[in-house]
Fold this sequence. Notes:
The complex is a heterodimer. Chain A is built from seven helices and two strands. Chain A is mainly alpha-helical. Chain A has one domain (10-250). Chain A is globular and about 80 Å long. Chain B has helices at residues 4-22, 27-46, 51-65, 67-81, 83-89.
Amino acid sequence: xxxxxxxxxxxxILEDTPIGDIHITMTMIMGWVVLIILSLLCWILGRNLxxxxxxxxxxxxxxxxxxxxxxxxxxxxxSYDGYIPFIGALFGTAVLSxxxxxxxxxxxxxxxxxTEAGWAIIVFILITKHKIKAQGLGGYLKGYxxxxxxxxxxxxxxxxxxxxxxxxxxxxxxxxGMVIGTLIYGALGAASMALLGLIPAVGxxxxxxxxxxxxxxxxITSLYFDWFGxxxxxxxxxxxxxxxxxxxxxx
Amino acid sequence: xxxxxxxxxIALAGCGIGSGLALIAGIGPGIGExxxxxxxxxxxxxxxxxxxxxxxxxxxxVALAETTGIYGFVTGLLLIFVAPGLFLGKL
Lengths: 251, 91
């Protein structure tokens, strides 16, 4: 039962720099693959647009844009049109990163906390910027001392808890899906070894090379963990981003 | 006397016990999501034409309430699969 859960593969390209070893990890490689696929998709959807007599490709593109517009207008309000491409890019990257692990042998870059940490840092900077714009720098810093100034550490922690919890929620869902999938594959491999090992001569060889019990059942659990979780978690990330930005502007 | 084996044993035992304790966090989402589902069923019974709205709000709320359960689950997983290599490498 070979289970490799200890993070992704990496090569070390520089050793003993001042900041430690520098690796090129599978997360970076798959992140670039996701980036290239998404850019190609956007380029394909955006070619040869017409006003009337539109092709099916343009219908899909218009549907995506309209859904994004409705989403951002519904959650943020109509005066935040500049955020529509950002939310769209975040959602598209997250969904594609989660679902790319369905292609055999690929590692989804969101199974590494570094990806989600990057998104969470961006969202944290956005929320802080909106808070400073709404209350001024003095008002923002004084907000940490309210209601009593001894509450300052607790306020700082609760401020940091927002991006950390957003990142860990997404990461936890995707990682747990991957781990459970790996464990199920391992268990089914052992079970099919036991089953096919009963055949007299070629049993063990068959059991190891043709794991027959591995067909079908992992697809059912992957429906929940990969498809449902992988689609809902980016949606929740984007909705929480919109809600926190709106709250920062009003509060 | 060489306490290395004992130290390794204690480290591994700590990981195991800790991972079991971490999964106690699974109680919370169970109760919370049960409450949410009960409210959803009641509101659908009261107003069946809002069913799909209620359903999407339920799914959104459930995925949000699942967060702390996932925190505990990931902590348990990390303690079983990642921590032994990390701790025993230092012994």
